Hints:
CATH class of the largest domain in chain A: Alpha Beta
Oligomer: homodimer
Mean pLDDT of chain A: 97
Shape of chain A: globular
Number of helices of chain A: 14
Largest interface: A-B, 61 and 60 residues
Strand order of the largest sheet of chain A: 2-10-9-8-5-3-4
Number of domains of chain A: 2
Largest sheet of chain A: 7 strands, mixed
Amino acid sequence: xxxxxxxxxxxxxxxxxxxxxxxxxxxxxxxxxxxxxxxxxxxxxxxxxxxxxxxxxxxxxxxxxxxxxxxxxxxxxxxxxxxxxxxxxxxxxxxxxxxxxxxxxxxxxxxxxxxxxxxxxxxxxxxxxxxxxxxxxxxxxxxxxxxxxxxxxxxxxxxxxxxxxxxxxxxxxxxxxxxxxxxxxxxxxxxxxxxxxxxxxxxxxxxxxxxxxxxxxxxxxxxxxxxxxxxxxxxxxxxxxxxxxxxxxxxxxxxxxxxxxxxxxxxxxxxxxxxxxxxxxxxxxxxxxxxxxxxxxxxxxxxxxxxxxxxxxxxxxxxxxxxxxxxxxxxxxxxxxxxxxxxxxxxxxxxxxxxxxxxxxxxxxxxxxxxxxxxxx
Amino acid sequence: xxxxxxxxxxxxxxxxxxxxxxxxxxxxxxxxxxxxxxxxxxxxxxxxxxxxxxxxxxxxxxxxxxxxxxxxxxxxxxxxxxxxxxxxxxxxxxxxxxxxxxxxxxxxxxxxxxxxxxxxxxxxxxxxxxxxxxxxxxxxxxxxxxxxxxxxxxxxxxxxxxxxxxxxxxxxxxxxxxxxxxxxxxxxxxxxxxxxxxxxxxxxxxxxxxxxxxxxxxxxxxxxxxxxxxxxxxxxxxxxxxxxxxxxxxxxxxxxxxxxxxxxxxxxxxxxxxxxxxxxxxxxxxxxxxxxxxxxxxxxxxxxxxxxxxxxxxxxxxxxxxxxxxxxxxxxxxxxxxxxxxxxxxxxxxxxxxxxxxxxxxxxxxxxxxxxxxxxx
Lengths: 377, 377
């Protein structure tokens, strides 16, 4: 049976990238790597829409979140974070692990924080050094308007704006410099279309100044060391060489499509999945949905386990289930990275067949028709 | 030109492993990964010769060194480390980054620390919580007798014995449980024959007890979280999936050869390179040499840069140069991981041709003859 992966990380890796990574190993302190890594660093700046350095860390995305916290702060400082899902909640866990005073802005999971809610939190806590946001909350499929929030934060105080862009970068519009974002992190197995194992991180001038004063202990994630190295297109520690080779190829694909076109494609595919869900009488969890993934609520009348089992075992489709209190309540479908229109018709067709197998009532073909209609909007 | 990699990490990746890693991506929270990771975890215990858990971290080897320090200690505790090369020195840097009192045992780079030197350091510092060693010092090619040192340390005090096994694991005899080693770390791009990006770490019961009292801040490298996850053959964060697939295949190769045979093969190849060097009138830097790599001093009469350039550009061979004050003075040749006898005759032949090109006087063939003779000993 042909298998298809629709999880919001790892996402499918283009065949040409997989084969490139399967070429004989090279050494990272030799010219063949330096040449490639120079190109990677230039293309990462384009991806992040920043003129500053983008650092490549060998870690999962969570490693880069950890790195931001332990490099920006001194113990006991105050920071605001938004708990609107598992990954927003993670910012709070990391802040507390480093002895920070973490002020939680709580929103119902599936909803998105507003600029007003952040402003309120800042009013009550004048010592806030940074605001931690999640542009695309992978656990709920909700998007946060980080552009507006960054503008409002900077109007009113000196706090840095930190964005978890793990499922946003390469999927949704994000202009780090223009929007005044002070830190952006992402992972390799998302919009960047390669396997997990690398994380990427960029800081603004303001954030770099904070790193100079930071007294939290760190070694592997010392970003000042990483910045010095990247100026020579090098890394302080042995990088995950094969993944760097992969990201070079993936970044070339993004550059050649054009970042605005990549964002537009994600918007088109996301809208097609949301239209299909609606046409099938299913509801999308997020009120302000991300273009990286769509979380769809499984109707109470259906057995969620049987649904997922059928989708996977009968039709070869792997999607993600719900996390935390959403376990067994939602499925999360990825349209993040290496997907096109016909991947969307494939997943919607498989959803229709699975719904039919599970005894759900709907007009066959209505989901796929809605998906196709959305492509041309 | 056919290219050959002889660096002590990254090391060559077997073709079958590269192709396995190029297969379509799978998701790490699904049964296909769990099945594979269960096998990996069993085989890692065999590799480390421990009945305890071996944790898989997505990081370079340095990440696992950082993880050991920030999980075992409380700020201000005392630990002994050995500065006999760049990687021993690194233990000291990490200890100090975490606010530890780091007692340095200094040995000339290229020499190995003795059990007596460690005993002296412990006598002068009764509060020592751990002794940090490097079994195979990659910067000099020197080996440390961690078996004897661990026995002597445990006879006299309660300190934990921590071993950087980054270029030792899978190359040199290491029996974690039997020898009473409290922590072992290694990286993926060494004896494990896969690309860089994963690190592996095991702790003894004593070391796990230390983690429970540790108050140093950590999140990504929280080993208690990793231990809980590995009990379910899971990881707390998204692992480098393709590399885990690769290490599964590589561990199967090691298991099928048998770990004792793997150690014997490394011993045989290392002896052949050392014999060749001697026959060619070159000197091996390390007094007690590692079986993972051989550092050979470049004679003063030769231009080191021209030597390396010829080896690389004319013969397609990549070796490692010297680090720190050995820059331009030595070359480091790897026989670590996926190498056999005929790889040794290839590198020695290339060395002979390069020496000849550089005007060095020797009897042609004498190096290769010595290599071949050593195989049958």
